[in-house]
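Protocol step 4 of 5: obtain the predicted structure for the target chain.
Materials: sequence only (see below). No template structures provided, no constraints applied. The aim of this step is simply to have a reference model before the mutagenesis design in step 5. Sequence pasted as it appears in the construct record:
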Amino acid sequence: MNFRLFITAWLAGLPGVFAVALLALPMLVAGRSLPVPLWVVQLANAAQGMVLLAVAVLTGVLLAPKVKLAAPVLEAIAAAKPVAGAFRPQLVPGLVGGIVGAGLLGLFAHYSPEALALLHAKVAMPAIVRLLYGGITEELLVRWGLMTMLVWLFWRVFQGGTGTPSRLVVFLAIGVSAIAFGLGHLPAAVALVGHLPVSLVLYIVLANAVFGVVAGWLYWRFGLEAAMVAHTTAHVLLLMVSP
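Step 4 output (structure tokens):
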């Protein structure tokens, strides 16, 4: 196992874990009676996040080379090699993907259910959380961890673990991980507003899944950091045009 890559990627995702525990969690539980002090809940949340991140990073480190997926920048850092050459081919695709993703999310927002207004009225997630957790940590969890595992699993099932994963295998993994990415946004929404109408559930899942497809394709074609650039860029653009 590439232990240095594991440590590098895990450390890259930790700021997002801490941002959620310190900044997002208090907003999610505001006004609720907790059985323990808030700092205990935050500590438990951070510990859980660190463990989940470690599992996802380990999955990517072990399986990505087997299915021809990569995180070129993180790999260059871990190997003490120049980063610019690894990052340059991913920058433009990532920026374009972020613009496309933000446009798709904006289009979804135009047709969003009225219940979404209540969700926005409840809380505006801090920008630092969206950038650090969304842009980096989520990509490590969903693309580097989950999508890589799915590509490897489908490759083993449909191709017997031989050759390069086919487009069908990769597209299937991109689709399943994108849906999982959309579903992963539901718990926070439930914590904020309680019961969610079906229209809002479908909106949250589908809107995020569409972006998940964009990020998954970028990861496959260019590298994990292209997905990170796209995710961060989309958040920056959406922050610029929304309150």
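Step 4 remarks: DSSP finds ten helices and no strands in the chain. The radius of gyration is 18 Å.
Proceed to step 5.
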